[in-house]
Batch of 2 targets.
Target 1
Amino acid sequence: MLETLRNASKGWLAAVLIIVLVGSFGIWGVQDMMNLTTTPTIAKVGDTEITPDQFQREFSRFLLQMQRESNSQLTTQQAKALNLDREALDRMLTRLALIARAKDAGFSISESQLLDAIKSIRGLSDPQGNINYAALQQILDNAQLNQQEFLDIVRGDMLREQMIRTMLGGIAMPAGLEAALNRFRLERRVIEYVKIDPSQAGEIKDPDDATLKKFYDTHAAERYSVPEYRTVTIVQARTADVASQIVVSEEDIKRVYDLNKRTYEVPEKRVLEQIRFKTEAAAIAGKAKLDSGQSFEAVAKAEGYKPEDIKLGDVSKSDTTIPADAFTIPLNTASKPLKGPFGWVIVRAVSATPGSLKTLDEVRGEIRERFVTERARDKLFELTNDFEDTRGGGATLEEAAAKHKLFLTKVTIDARGNDQSAKPVENLPAGEFLPRVFASETGIDSELTESSDGSYYDFRVDTVTPATKRPFDQVRAEILADWRAAELEKRIKAIADDLVKKAKAGQSLATLAAPLDLAPIKSDPFPRYGRNTAFAEQTVAAAHDAKIGDVFTGPVAEGKSVVVARLAEVQYAAEAPDSPERQMYAGRLREAFGGDLAQLLAIASREEVGVTIDEQKFQAFHTGE
């Protein structure tokens, strides 16, 4: 199948290249083409050169991805102002460096592995387990990729994952570091504090209208305005509407199950330990020591490994980075010397979880859903083509929707998708619909667009009601309440700041609180993380950043009061070594530690492979010169 893709690529791609070549002769002239001037290079990864054109395509894909993830429109100029082009280049160089390092280390991905990976991508395989070429082409179009670029990206991602997983396998977090982080987590703080509540602020009299109008003018945009509303006519071809019409026979389900039984196999897993040797001779010598009665741990120690260094953990039989013999040897028996990705190894299986095969009854619903999804996609594709043909013939959105029985609605919404009563409008298209609506002109039909849930929509903005300030007299009561709240906050803060200043000068909290008829309170020990019923998050953070004796201020958890506090003591909570909380935290620590090591591997790969950037050419790209 991949060969078919490549052959198809050669046909149209070759034609495009010929057109570009002929065009180049016409634009630049034969003489310039024969000068054989070097292609400009914006960066290099090892011997691989990256041209500005290649990076432009990479940046375009990166920007498209950012827009989808943030659900917002971002122009090239805006992205460059945020230095996203630099981030895109950095990611590209790191990815290429890791791939080059993986190839140097001997990792490889076979065609069958690549094909299986592509099939596993959501929506890229049909119920028969074959590649869905229409869906693949749609992904290529959306990602602005050609077929070979897509294959290279998938293969590169697999290589990087294979190398990182192998290099990090068996690496344990240093016990001292884990203990220190647990101590950090179990730390508890005790503070002595006084609470300044609204009663200490004194009477707040109503201001005159001039003061209120000044407050109104300052905050009108975010508090006292009616947002822009747009009335939109929307036509949707929804997956759910056509999916309900799909019928899947039991024969179809059984046939797909029989054809794809291997898909429903859960491979055997084993908890493995491994000793690595520098040479085959060393591995043979190590095996001889094991056969003579030395323990696995002793042989590992002689090779310079700690007990935690030899543990690979739970490994699947499908993991190609592990020698296949590791899954055939008896449990708790050392293998013969085996050739692994990083040299010669001896492996021992500590325990095993047998593989299994899901029954037809277990996967019937999954197979039916795949059939429905695939057939609904095809039906939706045909339906939208017919709809566009009708529109091309001059029909309005309303006429075309009625002819093809598509979902038609007219709504009035703001930029958040709410109606004029501030309630969310239901059944709006997913994805980038709202940004597109509020960037469109009135009376112009949009292009048919696929939403993030696989449905399609078309729309027309009928009317626009601009954002306006609500009249002062209409919102006077709101303005007065907001002004009073702001004035109260300002007065309480001033009192608290004055107490902090005096406390830092040496006065005790008891002395400072006496004129306010307050007495200091000693808190219960409280942790760094989790909800605190007494203090707001910023107050908890300030307490844990402080040293004993430091004075600080912060809000309470609920209400308008503020505390002035001094850190009194630091305690540590008791916790059993086998507590669920400790186990869960240990798992998170290992995950974070592995992520940090993967980042270090990326940095080291860039240094080993060699990454350079032509800053002059990058700046030219950045400024568009």
Target 2
Amino acid sequence: MNNNPDKLNELSKIVIDTVKEAGNVEEMYFRAGSSVKRESDSQGSRLVLGEGGTVSFDTYFNCFSYAKYLRYTNVKSVVFELKLKGDFTVKIIRKTLLEQPRIHQRAPIHSIQKDEEIAVCRVSLKETGNWQYRVDMSDEVIDMTASGELKEKTFYNAEERDVNPGKPKSAMYYIKVIAMKDDCVLYGGRYLTDCEPSRKVCAALNICTFKREEYVTANVNKINENLLKAEDSSIKDNLMVFVVDNGQTLEGQLPESDKILRFPNRNYGGAGGFTRGIIEAYDRRDYITHVIMCDDDLYMDPHILEKMINFLKFLKPEYEELHIHGGMFSLSEPTFQTEASAMWHHGGFPHKPLEMREQFNLLLNDMEEPFDYTGWWLTCMPVSLVEKNGLPLPLFIKCDDMEYGIRNEENVLVMNGIGVWHEAFDKKYSAHLEYFFTRNDMVIDSFHDMLDGNRRAMKLFTGRVLHHLFMHRYESAYFKLRGMNDYLKGVDFFKTQKEDELLMDLLSHNMKQYTEEQLNEMGYKINLKKMRKNSKHKTHRSERFINKLTLYGNIIPTCLYMKKPSIVDMQNCDPCHFAFRKEVIMWNPGDGKGAVVKASVKTFWKYFFWLIATDIKLIFNGNRISRQFYKRGYELTTVEFWKEHLGLNGGQQ
């Protein structure tokens, strides 16, 4: 069916250009058969197909998640548009998943799937032109028999007779093209609708950064060229870019535009930076409706913002507070989604770690499961929630996004095609982060009245501190102890803290890490084969008994320890690797750095008695402090507090 393009509204683009920084992974955009090659020039990319060549868009970035549109938007029909040159057969295929598997558990998945061609068209365009086809989406509920088989129900419209998909748990459309002759060319396409937008949307992309100039300038320049200045951009009037410059190093490095604003800010961490961006959006709430939180150390395809903002334009009234969250892909494994949402309790495990080259996983990813929060590498939220639920807590770094997600995200959308590439979180280890994990975890549990008794908190805290002490990671133990003691200072501590000064003080106590060359100069050799062997070592029952009886050697003098240094994987080790060892090299293959920890019985007992004193304080004061955060924590979330905290009321920034 041909439609007048002037009466159609764009939902998203079918993109052929890939992100080179993420490895130019074509399988995230299209699946190409034989006789297909991609060409690129200043005008963009195109696919050239020989006779019999096939291209399919059942991929993460280019499939159309129609079950999401049926549930959340007023979109009832979609127009498929391709820009083509040559003689093609074009197929529109519907893929549905009709049962709810559990995604985050590694259990067998039993699901009913249905895969069907709903349209097969012959297209012949001698000159470059647009081919379009319109499909109506039904919202009738499908019947299922007791055995789980489909009761097929046919309906008829002007174009086709087909099986009604109803409201499947997960569903997508995708396009497949087959070249009927040589030298056929595919330039890309779009998903359009003849429905009218239900609301006006203007989103501020809120990038919080600290001295990550290369990442930030690359992303902002791409957004500027592809979205803000591009003639074919469907959101150039619906997007602004806010760069909150905590390091104050980006002056003069961003494109000059009234849609790209830079805000020098105090280095009060991610919480301070992202909150500054939210405040700037809130102060412009007469025209800015949403704010999109975005990390500074990622790579993105700018067209994901088109998909996100255009989706918001068509929201049903009951979903006006909807959040849209992006999946996170690893730069080292660019087709693997490491996380799309997560749980706070139950170990904080992530949902949806999936390999996205697999078609079935695309359907799994669009399934909706309960979760507690989403991270701020890419999360869109309505500005109106500031008046309803306040601003983030001043947690500096770590857990700030988790807490705000728990507080706000009642309705969150995770959808194929909205994702970014990010460095793996476990690639580096910094001991000072233990301070923030300890302190902020306690604050969140208290603020949300989720602290399951101080005795349980004390048991977990004590175990983790001892774990570090047994591994001679005294700096890590120090940070955990200090974090708990600062939590016990209550709400007023957070009202007066200066996070930049606190960070500098913490870093002065941090564990020193070295490159392989530096360790060699110090007389330590990195033997990866030996490291892997040590990591696989399993202790015998007698050895475990002796380790525990002697507190992993800490009740005997270190002069009796083995003097030859051992080597372990920093991310995969436990106390048995350190027992009776005078020196241990902890090597991190992720970032190519290591640290040398040395046993000190004196230091062990110093921190052991500090741990006992902290546990006593937690027993006698923990309930009072927990109730204080629950009752007064909102004082740390007001616009007035944050403006004063960031020096926006005439104070020095």
